[in-house]
Amino acid sequence: MSKILYLMRHGQTMFNLRGKVQGASDSPLTKLGISQAKQAGHYFKHNHITFDEAYSSSSERACDTLENVLPEQAYQRNKGLKEWSFGLFEGDSVQLLDAVW
Asked: Are 98 and 24 in contact (CB under 8 A)?
């Protein structure tokens, strides 16, 4: 029996919109981010794609995305799925990371 694994990134957040390093920091979804999640949900529904299980990192942005993609689906929050911390760079401009890397 084969399984299909779907991986999804969270919708646009305020930090994404403002070009800020996010990592383990959290920022809320924007209206566009919520719309992106709902569009993904419509895609799955339209294509009759259902899920036996769903998982999310413990970040608000990831949980909010999943709740908008699959509003009726129970899911498990998993801290192990959380993004890495960028320490002092969190909240700074992403241009700073471009200079460092």
From this structure: no
